[in-house]
Fold these 2 entries.
Entry 1:
Amino acid sequence: MTGKRVYIQEVATRDGFQNEAQFVDTDAKIALIDDLSTCGYAKIEVTSFTSPKAIPALCDAEAVMHRIARREGTVYTVLVPNVRGAERALSCGVDEVNLVMSVSESHNRTNLRMSREQSFAQLRDVIGVVKQTKVAINVSLSTAMGCPMEGDIAQEDVLGWTQRFADLGVHGVTLCDTTGMAYPSQVGALCAATRERFPALEVTLHFHNTRGMALANTLAALDVGVDRFDASLGGLGGCPYAPGATGNVCTEELVHMLELDGYDTGVDLSALLSASALLPGLIGHDVPSQLLKAGRRLDLHAMPCAACDGQPEQRAFVQEN
Amino acid sequence: MTGKRVYIQEVATRDGFQNEAQFVDTDAKIALIDDLSTCGYAKIEVTSFTSPKAIPALCDAEAVMHRIARREGTVYTVLVPNVRGAERALSCGVDEVNLVMSVSESHNRTNLRMSREQSFAQLRDVIGVVKQTKVAINVSLSTAMGCPMEGDIAQEDVLGWTQRFADLGVHGVTLCDTTGMAYPSQVGALCAATRERFPALEVTLHFHNTRGMALANTLAALDVGVDRFDASLGGLGGCPYAPGATGNVCTEELVHMLELDGYDTGVDLSALLSASALLPGLIGHDVPSQLLKAGRRLDLHAMPCAACDGQPEQRAFVQEN
């Protein structure tokens, strides 16, 4: 490939599964992650080292992390909420820990049950523990492009929280559009400002497709040089504020568009679609992926026989434009 | 508004309804179109003057065209397949006729049951009739960005068919991504070439969201100066090649993004969402619109009570990023 390299980070087995009512069996999780490992991702967010009481869906974090077959070239990251979680994660030999807090005070209290300052203090302790190892540290800033309770989030607030974590030595920051409030011109401005102020930070964009704009927002981020995106297989991961709306941007749709536009994602789209086709069987319902239904752009169709026999009243499709 | 003007053209009552199994009552159609007329569209494609046997869903074209309340400033256009349809349309005082054929031979034969040359000859006759009046003429070129049977369509083919219609004096051309095969870099290149070669033609883009790229493709078209887009309320209009996949780009999602990005669409988004909410009642099923489910970006939510009482095991949402 000669296209510009773009890094794709899969979050379905963490951000997706944590929202599912049906427990995905540990062996099935491991088999899926092993499938994903063959797809060529830059990073896979495997699971979350949270209290099993808080997120029963991911109660098998240790077993999963220990038993997956890790591929050279893929970074295996896990979500870690506190020092206890960090110790559990480190004991499994993770490549990276991903920390999370919200830029919005209301969302942080709703999502994590504490103030932002309490979250920051807790994550500072986690960073202190992890920095004693060679494990990388990323921080995900939720509601960076809007809060469903507070509305607009000032760009300066996002940059301010990024600064506080950069000062603690994290290697990367993920700007999360937690509930699909981002729009292209906002994304472009925020990404440009973040990259300008923090040239040494690895910047990831985490889009949700709640209002249909995830791929448009991706273009806006690419335009200002962002090259790292979270995405969820099948579009798994709902939005608690919009029942029935889609959640995370769908990995196969993201990769499909990027490859068509000439980017080198490193990801095997055919393998991705095969893995995505397994999801409904694992979670017990259909997934939002449009690409899984429609097939790739050049997955062609035969002409319907009725088109050849000239019977005007038996038209299969009429005047579709 | 000081933003750049973008023209929004509604196609739900034609391109959407023609695909519906349930007949929408004539009075209900008229009431919906009258609602849409208050929304501020640049153009509304009202119906199709096709054989009622071919498209029973639109058998009431005359009644609808005669009885809607037309708003100053909105162009009322109709699809016309042949001279008979043109005569019917002209008798109703339409502002514009919209002609349709495919750039792909296979799709033209499937969709219209004749060769492209037969279609062109038929449409040339229509143009001959309509040019005797002051009614405007637009031609919609289907499969301009890919054919579900033939695959890629050469840009030169699209420009060639555009040239043939430009030579006949049509005032506008619509480049249709009939089955959602367009991708951003392709859209940018095709739109730039079309605008450069035909500076006097009104150029419309007609996107389908079959593979999730409609809004991203819209950004690519805007980037090269295209300012006119077809869209379908609620995202109505399916894709016969991808059962269950979404069809036309959803008007409210398009307008929502454009307004956030500072464009002046002339369209009242609140009125649009109210009209879209009526669709399931008219057609008997849910519509693809994500915005109808999720609400506008700044339609805010109250903090859940559980967020305030500090009970860690009763979290409503946990570690959503």
Note: DSSP finds twelve helices and eight strands in chain A.
Entry 2:
Amino acid sequence: MKVRVDVMLKTGVLDPQGEAVRHALGSLGFDGVEGVRQGKVIELELADGTTEDTVKEMCEKLLANTVIESYRIHMG
Amino acid sequence: MKVRVDVMLKTGVLDPQGEAVRHALGSLGFDGVEGVRQGKVIELELADGTTEDTVKEMCEKLLANTVIESYRIHMG
């Protein structure tokens, strides 16, 4: 089964990568770029029957740094 | 307006980051992890009226390395 996890920096946490992209888009001539936030998409191919709790545990232990990141789980 | 862009490695392209995560999950005791692919989520805050073509151009020029990556645009 396929599960997707989106991991984003929590609001308020400085996002240097996002800032860098915003500046680069500006210098490429794209105006109207008011903000950019960059995060991770993790697509997991898991054995059938894997529960959302197990995926949550994967996020808490490894996939997300829960001090500065939040995550959303999209089950298969 | 908010636009989300998912950038993933094209199928067939080796994903060392995904492999590293897969091994780490295994060593943390999670079995049944058959595959892991990791990509980027880019959330853009754009001026109202920005067209999908403009976002496509941003992807082609900067946000995705179209030789090895594919992207999906989710307009606001």
Note: Residues 2 and 76 of chain A are 5 Å apart (CA to CA).
